[in-house]
Design brief:
about 180 residues; alpha+beta; 2 domains; 4-stranded mixed sheet; RNA-binding; YhbY family RNA-binding protein
Amino acid sequence: MPALKVSSDQRAELRSQAHPLKPVVLVGAEGLTDAVLSEIKVHLGAHQLIKIRVFGDDREERIAIYEQICDTLNAAPIQHIGKLLVIWKPESAQPAVKTKRGALPSAREAAVEAKPGKGRAPRVVKVVKPSEIPMRKPKAKAVVVRGNERVTQGGNIKRAKKRQTSAKRSHQSSK
């Protein structure tokens, strides 16, 4: 399968998203084995955007590994800096997982519908709360969690606390 093609604007956006990531797969002295390819496939399925570290001093060999990974897994090459490779495989290129009772929209779908181009919020979280009557089954409920909110252990949604301002700063500004 050929590697996916990505526009330069999209590639720049993905590079900025990949900047803080740590490498999740290491390609060692053995090179690109089937086990390494399956591990890359697992991480692409979980994260869509991953970094791979290739140990080896031969640049041409690293480029060949990079191209082979992208061709084999139908992923898009995003960035190659030194021994780090950044690879992206969109969710649409992966098979959809269906549940018995109907799938809840994923966090990414909810974020795209609400505010495209923003971070990871809002996201849809499935909260299971026990019913008030002890003999009944607990109820599952889909809840939208926004950027400044979190879900507590009891299933409640709490807003994040405001950032504390420095005592030193407020003291300096009053003079």
